[in-house]
Amino acid sequence: MTPRLIATDLDGTLLDSSTAVSPRTRRALDTARSRGIHVVPVTARQPIGLRAIAADAAFDDWALCGNGAFATHLPDGQMLFAEELPAETLRALAEALRASVPGLLFASVREGGETFVAQHGYADLAQLSDHKRDPRTMRGVALEQVLDAPSLKLVIRHPELAPPVLFDILRDLGLTGFEATLSGAPFVEVMAEGVTKATGLARLCEHLGVARAEVVAFGDALNDVEMLRWAGYGVAMAGAEPSVLDAADEVTASNDHDGVAQVIERMLG
Protein backbone atom coordinates (compact mmCIF):
# COMPACT_ATOMS: atom_id res chain seq x y z
CA MET A 1 0.00 0.00 0.00
CA THR A 2 1.25 3.47 -0.94
CA PRO A 3 -0.87 5.95 1.04
CA ARG A 4 -2.03 9.38 -0.02
CA LEU A 5 -2.44 10.49 3.59
CA ILE A 6 -0.59 9.59 6.79
CA ALA A 7 -2.59 10.27 9.95
CA THR A 8 -0.56 10.02 13.12
CA ASP A 9 -1.16 10.42 16.80
CA LEU A 10 1.64 12.28 18.58
CA ASP A 11 2.25 11.36 22.23
CA GLY A 12 3.25 7.74 22.58
CA THR A 13 3.23 7.30 18.81
CA LEU A 14 5.17 9.76 16.63
CA LEU A 15 7.02 11.43 19.52
CA ASP A 16 9.56 9.57 21.62
CA SER A 17 9.42 9.47 25.42
CA SER A 18 11.09 12.87 25.62
CA THR A 19 8.31 14.23 23.33
CA ALA A 20 10.83 14.79 20.52
CA VAL A 21 10.73 13.88 16.84
CA SER A 22 13.70 11.63 16.13
CA PRO A 23 15.92 12.34 13.09
CA ARG A 24 14.82 9.07 11.47
CA THR A 25 11.15 9.91 11.94
CA ARG A 26 11.66 13.40 10.52
CA ARG A 27 13.37 11.94 7.44
CA ALA A 28 10.48 9.54 6.88
CA LEU A 29 7.91 12.33 7.14
CA ASP A 30 9.92 14.52 4.78
CA THR A 31 10.17 11.71 2.25
CA ALA A 32 6.41 11.20 2.37
CA ARG A 33 5.73 14.90 1.88
CA SER A 34 8.21 15.06 -1.02
CA ARG A 35 6.06 12.45 -2.77
CA GLY A 36 2.88 14.46 -2.36
CA ILE A 37 1.56 12.50 0.62
CA HIS A 38 -0.40 14.49 3.21
CA VAL A 39 1.03 14.14 6.73
CA VAL A 40 -1.62 15.01 9.30
CA PRO A 41 -1.18 15.07 13.09
CA VAL A 42 -4.36 13.73 14.73
CA THR A 43 -4.10 14.49 18.40
CA ALA A 44 -5.83 15.21 21.68
CA ARG A 45 -3.60 18.29 21.88
CA GLN A 46 -4.70 21.82 21.09
CA PRO A 47 -2.82 24.14 18.69
CA ILE A 48 -0.59 25.37 21.55
CA GLY A 49 0.66 21.81 21.97
CA LEU A 50 1.20 21.38 18.25
CA ARG A 51 3.18 24.59 17.94
CA ALA A 52 5.65 23.20 20.48
CA ILE A 53 6.74 20.45 18.08
CA ALA A 54 5.61 21.73 14.67
CA ALA A 55 9.08 22.85 13.58
CA ASP A 56 10.68 19.53 14.53
CA ALA A 57 8.06 17.57 12.58
CA ALA A 58 7.66 20.19 9.80
CA PHE A 59 3.91 20.25 10.31
CA ASP A 60 2.75 23.08 8.06
CA ASP A 61 -0.65 21.98 6.75
CA TRP A 62 -3.87 20.66 8.26
CA ALA A 63 -4.06 19.22 11.77
CA LEU A 64 -6.85 17.53 13.70
CA CYS A 65 -7.01 18.59 17.34
CA GLY A 66 -9.16 17.80 20.37
CA ASN A 67 -9.53 14.12 19.39
CA GLY A 68 -11.04 15.06 16.05
CA ALA A 69 -13.30 17.84 17.31
CA PHE A 70 -11.81 20.41 14.97
CA ALA A 71 -9.50 20.77 11.98
CA THR A 72 -7.15 23.73 11.82
CA HIS A 73 -4.79 24.90 9.09
CA LEU A 74 -1.55 25.48 10.97
CA PRO A 75 -0.03 28.26 8.82
CA ASP A 76 -2.99 30.63 9.12
CA GLY A 77 -5.33 29.21 11.76
CA GLN A 78 -8.18 28.63 9.30
CA MET A 79 -10.82 26.30 10.73
CA LEU A 80 -12.33 23.68 8.45
CA PHE A 81 -14.87 22.58 11.07
CA ALA A 82 -15.41 22.59 14.83
CA GLU A 83 -17.79 20.38 16.83
CA GLU A 84 -18.72 21.71 20.27
CA LEU A 85 -20.46 20.32 23.32
CA PRO A 86 -23.52 22.46 24.17
CA ALA A 87 -23.43 24.17 27.57
CA GLU A 88 -26.56 22.34 28.71
CA THR A 89 -24.85 18.99 28.04
CA LEU A 90 -21.80 20.10 30.02
CA ARG A 91 -23.93 21.07 33.00
CA ALA A 92 -25.97 17.86 32.97
CA LEU A 93 -22.85 15.73 32.74
CA ALA A 94 -21.03 17.58 35.51
CA GLU A 95 -24.05 17.47 37.81
CA ALA A 96 -24.52 13.72 37.41
CA LEU A 97 -20.84 12.93 37.74
CA ARG A 98 -20.31 15.13 40.80
CA ALA A 99 -23.21 13.39 42.52
CA SER A 100 -21.28 10.12 42.18
CA VAL A 101 -17.70 11.35 42.65
CA PRO A 102 -16.93 14.16 45.11
CA GLY A 103 -13.80 16.23 44.51
CA LEU A 104 -13.84 16.32 40.71
CA LEU A 105 -12.26 19.23 38.85
CA PHE A 106 -13.15 20.43 35.35
CA ALA A 107 -11.64 22.51 32.56
CA SER A 108 -13.03 23.55 29.18
CA VAL A 109 -11.26 24.06 25.85
CA ARG A 110 -12.83 26.80 23.71
CA GLU A 111 -12.29 29.16 20.78
CA GLY A 112 -10.30 27.03 18.38
CA GLY A 113 -8.39 25.42 21.23
CA GLU A 114 -6.75 28.70 22.22
CA THR A 115 -8.80 29.35 25.38
CA PHE A 116 -8.51 27.11 28.44
CA VAL A 117 -11.03 27.76 31.23
CA ALA A 118 -10.13 25.87 34.43
CA GLN A 119 -12.01 25.48 37.66
CA HIS A 120 -10.52 26.82 40.89
CA GLY A 121 -8.02 24.21 42.11
CA TYR A 122 -7.42 22.61 38.73
CA ALA A 123 -4.02 24.26 38.29
CA ASP A 124 -2.85 22.70 41.56
CA LEU A 125 -3.09 19.26 39.92
CA ALA A 126 -1.77 20.22 36.49
CA GLN A 127 1.72 20.06 35.03
CA LEU A 128 3.06 21.75 31.92
CA SER A 129 3.06 18.43 30.08
CA ASP A 130 -0.68 17.91 30.66
CA HIS A 131 -1.91 20.65 28.32
CA LYS A 132 1.36 22.24 27.15
CA ARG A 133 0.26 25.25 29.21
CA ASP A 134 1.98 26.64 32.28
CA PRO A 135 -0.39 25.95 35.20
CA ARG A 136 0.47 29.39 36.54
CA THR A 137 -1.44 30.85 33.59
CA MET A 138 -4.60 28.89 34.43
CA ARG A 139 -6.70 31.49 36.13
CA GLY A 140 -9.20 29.52 38.17
CA VAL A 141 -12.91 30.31 37.93
CA ALA A 142 -16.09 28.97 39.50
CA LEU A 143 -17.39 25.71 38.06
CA GLU A 144 -20.42 27.55 36.68
CA GLN A 145 -18.12 29.60 34.45
CA VAL A 146 -16.38 26.48 33.17
CA LEU A 147 -19.72 25.07 32.10
CA ASP A 148 -21.51 28.19 30.86
CA ALA A 149 -20.37 28.12 27.20
CA PRO A 150 -19.95 25.49 24.46
CA SER A 151 -16.74 23.47 24.65
CA LEU A 152 -14.56 21.69 22.11
CA LYS A 153 -13.35 19.42 24.90
CA LEU A 154 -14.27 19.07 28.56
CA VAL A 155 -11.47 17.79 30.80
CA ILE A 156 -12.35 15.89 33.98
CA ARG A 157 -9.84 14.90 36.64
CA HIS A 158 -9.60 13.92 40.29
CA PRO A 159 -6.75 14.33 42.77
CA GLU A 160 -6.79 10.63 43.66
CA LEU A 161 -8.82 8.55 41.19
CA ALA A 162 -7.01 7.37 38.05
CA PRO A 163 -8.49 8.32 34.66
CA PRO A 164 -9.56 4.74 33.77
CA VAL A 165 -11.54 4.59 37.02
CA LEU A 166 -13.25 7.90 36.25
CA PHE A 167 -13.91 6.75 32.70
CA ASP A 168 -15.65 3.58 33.92
CA ILE A 169 -17.75 5.57 36.39
CA LEU A 170 -18.80 7.98 33.66
CA ARG A 171 -19.67 5.16 31.29
CA ASP A 172 -21.71 3.38 33.97
CA LEU A 173 -23.88 6.47 34.51
CA GLY A 174 -25.58 5.66 31.22
CA LEU A 175 -25.69 9.27 30.06
CA THR A 176 -25.85 10.25 26.39
CA GLY A 177 -25.15 13.30 24.28
CA PHE A 178 -21.35 13.22 24.35
CA GLU A 179 -18.28 11.12 23.51
CA ALA A 180 -15.70 10.28 26.22
CA THR A 181 -12.25 8.80 25.83
CA LEU A 182 -8.74 8.48 27.27
CA SER A 183 -5.51 9.59 25.61
CA GLY A 184 -2.98 8.52 28.22
CA ALA A 185 -3.14 11.96 29.88
CA PRO A 186 -4.10 12.20 33.58
CA PHE A 187 -7.76 13.04 32.90
CA VAL A 188 -10.89 11.96 31.04
CA GLU A 189 -11.66 13.83 27.82
CA VAL A 190 -15.21 14.54 26.66
CA MET A 191 -16.17 15.75 23.18
CA ALA A 192 -19.42 16.36 21.34
CA GLU A 193 -21.62 13.37 20.64
CA GLY A 194 -20.16 11.12 17.96
CA VAL A 195 -16.85 12.97 17.74
CA THR A 196 -13.75 10.80 17.46
CA LYS A 197 -10.47 10.95 15.62
CA ALA A 198 -12.13 8.83 12.93
CA THR A 199 -14.99 11.28 12.31
CA GLY A 200 -12.61 14.22 12.14
CA LEU A 201 -10.28 12.38 9.80
CA ALA A 202 -13.16 11.37 7.53
CA ARG A 203 -14.23 15.01 7.18
CA LEU A 204 -10.71 16.19 6.45
CA CYS A 205 -10.16 13.43 3.88
CA GLU A 206 -13.38 14.41 2.12
CA HIS A 207 -12.09 17.99 1.95
CA LEU A 208 -8.75 16.82 0.54
CA GLY A 209 -10.25 14.31 -1.89
CA VAL A 210 -8.53 11.35 -0.24
CA ALA A 211 -10.33 8.00 -0.06
CA ARG A 212 -10.50 6.00 3.14
CA ALA A 213 -8.54 3.18 1.54
CA GLU A 214 -5.68 5.60 0.85
CA VAL A 215 -5.12 6.42 4.54
CA VAL A 216 -2.60 4.85 6.89
CA ALA A 217 -3.06 5.75 10.56
CA PHE A 218 -0.85 5.31 13.62
CA GLY A 219 -1.85 5.29 17.30
CA ASP A 220 -1.34 3.85 20.75
CA ALA A 221 -4.20 4.85 23.08
CA LEU A 222 -7.94 4.37 23.51
CA ASN A 223 -8.68 7.61 21.64
CA ASP A 224 -6.96 6.13 18.57
CA VAL A 225 -9.09 2.99 18.27
CA GLU A 226 -11.79 4.41 15.99
CA MET A 227 -9.20 6.03 13.72
CA LEU A 228 -7.23 2.79 13.30
CA ARG A 229 -10.41 0.92 12.45
CA TRP A 230 -11.55 3.58 9.98
CA ALA A 231 -8.29 3.98 8.08
CA GLY A 232 -7.46 1.82 5.10
CA TYR A 233 -4.50 0.55 7.12
CA GLY A 234 -4.23 0.98 10.88
CA VAL A 235 -0.94 0.60 12.74
CA ALA A 236 -0.62 0.24 16.51
CA MET A 237 2.55 0.89 18.45
CA ALA A 238 4.24 -1.88 20.41
CA GLY A 239 3.04 -1.75 23.99
CA ALA A 240 -0.29 -0.14 23.08
CA GLU A 241 -3.43 -1.04 24.99
CA PRO A 242 -5.11 -4.34 24.00
CA SER A 243 -8.09 -2.58 22.39
CA VAL A 244 -5.68 -0.61 20.20
CA LEU A 245 -3.78 -3.73 19.17
CA ASP A 246 -7.06 -5.44 18.29
CA ALA A 247 -8.13 -2.49 16.12
CA ALA A 248 -4.93 -2.42 14.06
CA ASP A 249 -3.88 -4.21 10.89
CA GLU A 250 -0.25 -4.20 12.05
CA VAL A 251 1.79 -3.68 15.19
CA THR A 252 5.04 -1.78 14.70
CA ALA A 253 7.93 -0.97 17.01
CA SER A 254 7.46 1.44 19.89
CA ASN A 255 7.66 5.22 19.67
CA ASP A 256 11.16 5.04 21.15
CA HIS A 257 12.26 2.73 18.34
CA ASP A 258 10.94 4.74 15.36
CA GLY A 259 7.94 2.51 14.79
CA VAL A 260 6.15 5.07 12.60
CA ALA A 261 9.25 5.64 10.50
CA GLN A 262 9.77 1.91 9.99
CA VAL A 263 6.32 1.51 8.46
CA ILE A 264 6.59 4.62 6.27
CA GLU A 265 10.01 3.56 5.00
CA ARG A 266 8.68 0.15 4.04
CA MET A 267 5.57 1.52 2.36
CA LEU A 268 7.56 4.01 0.33
CA GLY A 269 10.12 1.45 -0.71
From TrEMBL:
It comes from the Bacteria. Keywords: Hydrolase. Transmembrane segments: none annotated. One of its GO terms (molecular function) is hydrolase activity. PROSITE patterns: COF_2. Its EC number is 3.1.3.-. CDD domains: HAD_Pase (cd07516). InterPro entries: Cof (IPR000150), HAD-like_sf (IPR036412), HAD-SF_hydro_IIB (IPR006379), HAD_sf (IPR023214). It is an enzyme of class 3 (hydrolase). SUPFAM superfamilies: HAD-like. This is HAD family hydrolase. The lineage of its organism: Bacteria, Bacillati, Actinomycetota, Actinomycetes, Micrococcales.
